[in-house]
Design goal:
227 residues; alpha/beta; hypothetical protein tt1634; four-stranded mixed beta sheet; 19% strand
Length: 227
């Protein structure tokens, strides 16, 4: 009789063990699913981050507007392009360079920079070599004057101001997807084209206003949200 009771108790113990084991397995399964979900989400975030970083490395999406900005931005630090007044136009990947450069070397360098820019299919060189009287004077002035000009970002001409504004636009997240045309005449910067947000419009105008050599800014940008 006692054996039967022990058997029954043992059976209950086994049943209890099965129940406990089953209950233990359920949270583990849920935890495993949760872990898998978290890993998937983490992987997704990493992919988005890598994509974002890749976009920054290439200067955002390669559009005609981006190419124009990129070419201009690369002109800014070039000493051989000091006193240049270059306008960059891009259409379907074809870049046209117009305006003046002080030397043949500057002309060659400007074309080389444009050709080496991502997304550029070909370059139409319509630059004119027009030595500036400022160059002759500079060679007769003390070297510290020349060094001061370099520290200030080269001689401040309308062409340099245009390039500097574009250079400051290229890394602005709020201006991603924008199509901005910058025209500078006698220190007056006119902004035309489109930006995806009002914040982008305000930021573009602020950057232009803060650029050395800019006297005033006419903001004619239109806000066109991304689709």
């Amino acid at each position: 009789m006692s054996f039967v009771i022990r058997e029954i108790r043992t059976g209950r113990a086994l049943a209890g063990a099965v129940v406990v084991t089953a209950l233990a397995l359920v949270p583990g399964s849920v935890a495993a699913q949760a872990t898998a979900t978290q890993q998937a989400q983490s992987a997704g975030q990493e992919v988005k981050q890598e994509t974002k970083q890749a976009a920054h490395k290439t200067g955002n999406a390669i559009t005609d507007s981006w190419i124009t900005m990129k070419v201009h931005s690369q002109f800014v630090p070039e000493n051989v392009l000091e006193n240049s007044d270059i306008d960059v136009e891009t259409k379907a990947g074809v870049v046209t360079l117009l305006g003046t450069v002080p030397t043949a070397a500057g002309k060659t360098r400007a074309v080389a920079i444009a050709k080496a820019t991502d997304g550029v299919k070909s370059v139409n060189d319509r630059l004119r070599v027009a030595p500036s009287s400022n160059d002759v004077a500079a060679s007769e002035v003390a070297k510290d004057t020349k060094q001061t000009a370099n520290k200030a970002g080269n001689t401040i001409s309308d062409g340099w101001v245009t390039s500097k504004i574009y250079a400051d636009y290229i890394d602005e997240d709020v201006l991603e997807g924008s199509d901005i045309d910058v025209d500078v005449d006698a220190g007056v910067a006119t902004l035309k084209g489109t930006v995806p947000t009002q914040a982008g419009s305000a930021r573009a105008a602020a950057i232009a206003k803060a650029t050395d050599g800019v006297k005033s800014v006419h903001n004619s940008l239109k806000v066109v949200p991304k689709t």
